[in-house]
Amino acid sequence: MNLLQNFSFVIILLNIFLAITVIFLERRNASSTWAWLMVLFFIPVLGFVMYLILGQKVRKRQLNKLLGENRRIIEEALEKQSIMLERREMFPEGSEMAKYQDMMYMNLTTSYALYTNNNEIEIFTDGNRKFDELLTDIENAEHHIHLVYYIVRDDALGRRLMDALVRKASQGVEIRFLYDQIGSLALPRKYFRELRAVGGKEAAFFPSRIPFLNLKINYRNHRKLAIIDGRIGYIGGFNIGNEYLGLNKHFGAWRDTHLKVQGGAVLQMQAQFLMDWNLAVATKMPLGPAYFPYPHNVNGIIGMQLVASGPDTEYQEIKNAYIKMIYSAKHTICLQTPYFVPDESLMTALRIAALSGVSVNIMLPSKPDHFFVYWATQSFLGDLLESGVRVYLYKEGFLHAKTLVVDRMVASVGTANLDIRSFKLNFEINAFIYDEDTAAELADIFLEDSENSFELTMERYNRRPLFNRFKESVSRLLSPIL
Questions:
Q1: What are phi and psi for residue 310, nearest 5 degrees?
Q2: Could you tell me the pTM of the whole model?
Q3: For a disulfide at 472, which of 17, 172, 310, 379, Cβ 3.0-4.6 Å?
Q4: What are the pLDDT digits (tens) for 236-275?
């Protein structure tokens, strides 16, 4: 009995110590603090383990020190654009895009997101087309291929990609492959064996020092970028695996959105990749001119900013840009996301837009892949439906696209979901696109997807079973830490 009492006493002391840490030392926001306190006191032993895995904060000073040197390279360009945007001189009078200069200024000053207007964009919504195009560009690479993916699988698609990389590395092309260790937890080390043998390089992001045990569930690199010769870039939602080709029996067809970009925005993708790479490797890679070629033979006229955010940045830059876009809406908002766990600021923005007469349309998957997140998502929909937001549940497979289109004028496509994890805990990157034709194309894709969805009405929402409401309530309480 004494042993049990002593053990209980130790657990109580640990919980008290951890609660003090959460409240006074880590200075989290109030909702996150209360969520962790609830976990700690109601699940004393398991809650402690959950905090060790999910609750650790990244060392921002160390990250900023590593990233700072690379960021200083573009300070001159940042200062020039900052002055032009501050004075509203970036666009001629009468330009439709002039009204978004304040958003551009915010992205520039908080996320070092240079504006470029010489880009070409191709949109992919099907994984087979996206990977066929990517592999073709890899085959044509002459100098280097840089890849970063959250999930990489050693399956048919993964091996097809690796075979292409090994072939190019044996021809003298530089290969750097960065993958997230938690996202690619099942990826065997032998996957990179042939690539290393022919001079290719790979690195795991935030790996564990203990084999088969990684306590850093948070602060993962959720970005998906591919840069070929500094001239072609890919960004969006597709990872590397057979399911992204629609070959998973559980999910069926996979509906995602990815961009192929040529133009000045590719150099921003390159800079982000090299910063991530230098964060993951011991021997830092210099930002030489060979990796930043001037974009020749590109006749694009599309304006873009690449906004990166994560635990290494001061603000929640992608979330702030989303909110700024939503508040700018006059007519329509079309939003697609697989996970919808918003904070109060985002919920308020969507409700105000709908109550102001803006047509707000949100599309989510009809089937879950993460149950707690799915039920938390369901809990937020009632508030939106009451405000006049239209909610569509995609039924032709799994919807994984992360897109936002406002007024068929501006759009965002990238890696960030609409949840607290993407906004605060993960390393993410989104393309913000200032082009009427591209935004209209993405809005039309939303309309096509709505034909493969069913609309969730308030009447239908109110008929959900009592047990579902219970799951929603519990999941919503935990939403700040999901």
A1: 165, -175
A2: 0.85
A3: 379
A4: 999 999 999 999 988 899 999 999 999 999 999 999 999 8
